Amino acid sequence: MPSKQTYSFCFCFRRRFRLPVSEAPPEIRTLFDRYSDQNGVMTATHLRSFLAEVQREDNATEEEAQTIIDGHKHLSIFHRRGLNLESFFNYLFSHHNNPPLSPSIGVHQDMSSPLSHYFIYTGHNSYLTGNQLSSDCSDIPIINALQKGVRVIELDIWPNESKDNVDVLHGRTLTSPVALIKCLRSIKQHAFVASEYPVVITLEDHLTPDLQAKVAEMITRTFGDILFAPTSKSLKEFPSPESLKRRVIISTKPPKEYLEAKEVQETEEGPQQEKPADDEEAWGKEVPSLRGGTISDYKNIEDDDVLDDEEDIDEAEKSRQDAADEYRRLIAIHAGKPKGGLTECLKVDPDKVRRLSLSELQLEKAAETHGKEIVRFTQRNILRVYPKGTRITSTNYNPLIGWMHGAQMVAFNMQGYGRSLWLMQGMFKANGGCGYVKKPDFLLKVGQNNEVFDPKAHLPVKTTLKVGIAGVPNDTVMKKTEKVEDNWSPSWNQVFEFPLAVPELALLRVEVHEYDMSEKDDFGGQTCLPVWELRSGIRAVPLYSRNGDKYANVKLLMRFEFI
Fold first, then answer.
1. What pLDDT digit, counting tens, does each position of 355-398 carry?
2. Smallest Cα–Cα separation from 386: which of 170, 134, 157, 140?
3. Domains and CATH numbers, the chain
4. pLDDT digits (tens, 9 = 90+) for 21-66
5. DSSP SS3 for 216
6. pLDDT tens across 548-561, in order?
7. Which residues are bridge partners to 123 per DSSP?
8. Nearest one of 141, 135, 67 to 412, comparing CA atoms
9. How large is the angle between the packed helices 180-190 and 209-223, nearest 10 degrees?
10. CA-CA distance, 273 to 270, in Å (whole number)?
11. Which residues are marked as active site?
């Protein structure tokens, strides 16, 4: 008899669910019968064949298969020489033994290329605890980001009230400040907890020269030998992540005069707010442009970046000579926008490299007319993309538009949740979760006629993933399973196929919802995985909360096949 158990909901009423005994789905039973003997025992020889033929683990050995069996003997006490159906099913559902991404390969990409050859896990206004206008500033969000593998931390630095020290806050807003020195010390303490690859601190500088000198002293004393300081005023080529292991890098615009910030006065209506994010609903709007749309969908959108956090480089250059030499020497990655429009911004200088920042809307507009030029620029230089200023509630945008143009630093608000952020988290599960993912070769290559990748080109299908996918526009498909009602162990047994033209940038995003006929569906869990690192075969896929925290015992059993 199946066991029964009573669960209390909201202390208001009780509902009894029927908890089925762990019964393997028919497909698993069929596979077990095929790879076991007539007595219902899967020996090491059988299991090795299963690993090679179904899981596509061609190098699997009988010794490895026996290790798996030994780890599940407690579930198969009457079959010491192999697995029975229950222990086989338990093995398949074990995320520790059977994850969708291989835990053993770790950081496996070449890390010896220049920084410009990598996508880098990047935060925006990393110090904010909530919205962009009135939330507290703190080092806690910085610590949380570093612990999740984020490699680029952004700090806006301003004079404190007495103008004798430096605070971090979102300028011209009602956010409460946090001391810069506190943020720097927290960065040093937690920088390499999740990854030993370099941490970049991008500074939005609103300081006078004397306070810039003070910041230089703070940074030098705090980081000491782990601070990377270039030996020349500008770099001809960026160093590699490998050469910068456990180092901290400073990136900012060249020093400029401090402009007094005007106090923010709220109108009677209060500060301008963006519309509520539909993706906070169980089934809301998709990530923009991921349903077959392209960047051309945005060509009529005006750039409304009221909180644009970049200024022209010419103003900065005028007062560069006034800044403290100590501060200027710390800047390893120079940022700024040359005067003269987009064409000048995207010019590639063979003698020096730099960082350019564009808002999400500025990038979308630029991609309409200068897509290939952006790709060429990002082969040597760094492009940072940041959220438009009207994202008051700290929502995010579609990161794939930046990535498909080679943008290394697609800066995100990390303090919230939503489908866009899940895509970001999925991307950086790749390469051992180190925060650096090597860009696909097609974004780095230059052809015989000096041609580069065209993000608008219609490309042939390279492979088909048999199992939603989020990727470049042609690879964007969303599909839903049929509904399974009142079952805590649902089995869908459905197959989806996704043709992929650019599998190197494809992400598989999965959401689980509790179907409710009378009300909106309830969110159950989500995950996002880099398609190019998926392991073929039947895998245990853990689910995560809205905030990206892994559930302890909630998994999906999924089969992946590339055809």
1. 999 999 999 999 999 999 999 999 999 999 999 999 999 999 99
2. 170
3. 22-93 (1.10.238), 115-254+320-443 (3.20.20.190), 464-560 (2.60.40.150)
4. 357 888 889 999 999 999 899 999 999 999 999 999 999 999 999 9
5. helix
6. 899 988 888 888 99
7. 412
8. 141
9. 30
10. 9
11. 124, 170
